């Protein structure tokens, strides 16, 4: 977060959401587009495999009871 906000004491609770600046969000989005590399330093800050996994929406777990219930309701 921009240091000038902290110096002035202008911080507001986000109530569980994301509290950021437009600059920080832009940097975060650039990092996602660069597959985990920091846009200014080119340092890898998130493994590319993690970026790919999150981008595909496949998180690697299954809930058999929910899937079974869904199949059962569809077959009725």
TrEMBL record:
Superkingdom of source: Eukaryota
SUPFAM superfamilies associated with the record: beta-lactamase/transpeptidase-like
InterPro entries: Beta-lactam/transpept-like
UniProt cross-references to Gene3D superfamilies, sorted A to Z: DD-peptidase/beta-lactamase superfamily
Protein name: Uncharacterized protein
């Amino acid at each position: 977060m921009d240091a000038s906000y902290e110096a002035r004491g202008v911080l507001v609770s986000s109530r569980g959401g994301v509290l950021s600046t437009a600059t920080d969000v832009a940097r975060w989005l650039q990092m996602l587009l660069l597959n985990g590399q920091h846009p200014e330093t080119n340092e890898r800050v998130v493994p590319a495999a993690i970026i790919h996994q999150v981008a595909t929406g496949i998180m690697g777990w299954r809930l058999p009871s929910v899937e079974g219930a869904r199949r059962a309701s569809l077959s009725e």
